[in-house]
Each structure stands twice: as structure tokens, then as C-alpha cells.
Amino acid sequence: MAEVGKGVNAGKLASNVQKRITRAQEKVLQKLGKADETKDTAFEEEVAKFNKQLIDGSKLQKDFKAYLAAVKTMHECSKRLHDCLAEMYDPEWFGKEEVDSIAEDTDLLWQDFHQNLVDNALISMDTYLAQFPDIKARIAKRERKLVDFDSARHHFASIQKSKKKDEVKISKAEEDLGRAQKVFEEINYELQEELPTLWDSRVGLYVNTFQSVAGLELKFHKDMGKLNQNLSDIMTKLDEQRLAKKGVTTASAGKSEEAANHNLSESGSDAPKSPAKSPESRERPPVSQSPRPASSQEMKQDNIINLSEDEGVAEINISTQPQNETPTVTNGSSDAELPPSVLYKVKAVHDYGATDSDELDLKAGDIVLVLPFASPDEQDDGWLMGVKESHWLQNKNLLATGVFPENFTQKL
């Protein structure tokens, strides 16, 4: 029984060797132009499409696997980053439990995203490409069967043309030709049906792949955005907690700096910074208050009494100012009568350039008449309201009032 099996295998091997020799001879004759070759242009176009489709599909599969590897790497980096935050986050800080929960949810979100990409895109892509090796093998088989068909056709034609007719050889050659033609036509028909269908199926693969990736990315980034927003809110509240604890210290430091600036202005050193001014105090109408009794220092004396020590007799000199005489402006040195609403005078010790329309421009040496604010709530710390004395002496009105930093002036 073993000898029979060996004989069958040996016979099949000899047949295969003979087929290869025959095919090689046929191809040589076709290349030399001594034998015609069966051509199928339409099928060759389908084969070209098949090869392109295989190359494109393999490239897409390779790039998608690289994308999955990048997602995996991002997942690992994200996990390490959140683990680092959880380790550094002190238990007494705001939102410690929420931070740990966000880290766990972020890790699960990355895992689900990666697994969904594998299930919805990679598996279908692998299934699509799995059919190409079989079809590629059958295309190669068709090429061999086509050579066998051409060889049988040429052999049958040569026997028919021989001068000595041998009916047995002709019959066998015709039988071999029919068998070769049948095998070739069967596989050729199958491939002509499958290749166009396979070519069209690439559209479905592209749609499924990129639609799945787009949808999964959209959901992933939406859910991840919510977690990131929650984490950002926790960080904001943590910062507010920190600032609240430092509020008293910051306020004390601010007052100390303001006092230092004021002392610098009084000592005649470099010009200090103007204090901050609230937006509500940017625009204020001129302030007018009801007159108050003028002090004896503010009243101009018309009668001057000089006492003589030697004679002990008072000499009284009465001097009156002409009614039409304009008082001389000497940058605040005039003793002209001031409006009753003036609180006191200050002298600018540094130049100050106005930065808003409601501020006064000051030059060192200018005298300013300080006026009260309409409401104490309108006054900012470190700011005064007034009018230049030179304007009052020239125009006798308080329309040119404005605010100015107190630490740029010295009270007279």
C-alpha cells in the first residue's frame, strides 16, 4: 500500500515538473514572438486595480496601527501625569477627593477610547485585508492556467498541421486543449466577478474606518473636556483658597507701600507712584458745597494796626485796594480771598502728568486748593480733589476741578 502511495506521489511530482517545463517553453516562445499570447486587457486593468487596492489598504492598516500606538502612549503619559498630581496634592487642599476621582475617570476614558477604536475600525480593516492573499494566489493560478491553455492550443494546432495525421494524437491534443480551456475559463470567470466587487468594497471600508474614528474621537474629546473643566474649576478654587489666606498679609503690605510712597514725596526724593484709582471715580461732576464761615486766617484784613513800642501809641494806617485792580498771580503766594468750600492748600513737590480726563496736570511748585468730594464713598485712598489756585485767581470759578495723588503734594 505504501509503494502504491509512493508511486502516486512520484507520478504527480513528475507531472508537475513536466507542466513547469512546458510553461517555461511556452513563455520563451511567446517572448521570442514564435507563439501568440492570449491577452485580456479588461482583466489586466482589474488586476492593476487590485494591486493598488492592496497597497492602499496595507498602508491604511499600518498607519492606523501607528495611530493606536500613539493613543496608547498618550494614555500612559496622561495616567502618569494624573498620578503625579494625586501624589503632590495635599489632603487638606480643596477638592482632594474630586482630583482622585477625575484621575480614575480619565484613565477609564482612555481605555474605552482605545478599545472602541480596535473593535470598530481595526477588526473590520483586518477582515477586509484578509481576503487579498487568497485572491492574489488565484490571480497567479489564472496566469499559469492561461499559459497552459496557450500551450495546449499551440500543440493542437501543430498536430493538425503535420503532414502525417495521427488521429489518436489529435484526439488527445484536442482533449487536453478542452480541459485546459475549461480550467482557465472557470477561474477567469470567478475572478472577473470578484475583482470589481472587491474594488467597490474599499469605499465601505474607508467610510466605516473614518466614520468610526471621527465619532469616537468626538465623544472622547467631549467627555475629556468635561473632566478637564472640572479639574480647572478645582484648581481655580484652590488658588482662591490660597489668596484668601494671604489676603490680610497682602493688604498690610499695600498700606505699608502707600505710606512709604507718601514719605518719599515729603522728603523730596524721586517721584512716587500714583495710587490706584477705582473706575467709579474716573468721572465725577465738579463739587459745590454750601459756604462755611471763613477763618480768621482766610480773611483779608483791610485795616492794619501798627503799635509803636517807643511811644506806646497805636498808629492806625488804613489801606484800601482799588476795586478794579486784578490780583497778581504768584503761583499760590497771593493772599486773595478763597472760596469758602476750600479745605486747605497743598503744594506740588513733584511733576504729575494726568492719565485721565478727570485728573489735574501738576508741576512742582503748583498750589492746589483742596475741595471736598460730593460723597466720601467717591474718594479713593491716596487721592484728593481740587483746583489750581492760579485758575481760581484768574477765573474766579471752580470749573477746572480734578483729582490728583496726595503723595505728590505737601500740605501748606
Helix and strand topology:
Layout lengths: L1 H31 L8 H48 L7 H35 L1 H30 L5 H79 L1 H20 L36 E5 L6 E5 L25 E5 L18 E5 L11 E6 H7 L6 E4 L3 E3 L1
Antiparallel strand pairs: 1-2, 3-4, 3-7, 4-5, 5-6
Helix pairs in contact: 1-4, 2-3, 2-5, 3-5, 4-5
Main location: cytoplasm
GO molecular function: phospholipid binding; tau protein binding
Organism: Cyprinus carpio (Common carp)
Record keyword descriptors for this entry.
BAR_dom; tau protein binding; Bridging integrator 1b; five-stranded antiparallel β-sheet; 412 residues; alpha+beta; 61% helix; two-stranded antiparallel ribbon; Amphiphysin
Kindly describe this structure.
The protein has 412 residues and is α+β, with helices and mostly antiparallel strands. The chain is 61% helix and 8% strand. The strands form two sheets. The chain has a five-stranded antiparallel sheet with strand order 6-5-4-3-7. The protein has a two-stranded antiparallel sheet with strand order 1-2. The radius of gyration is 53 Å and the shape is rod-shaped. It starts with a helix and ends with a strand.
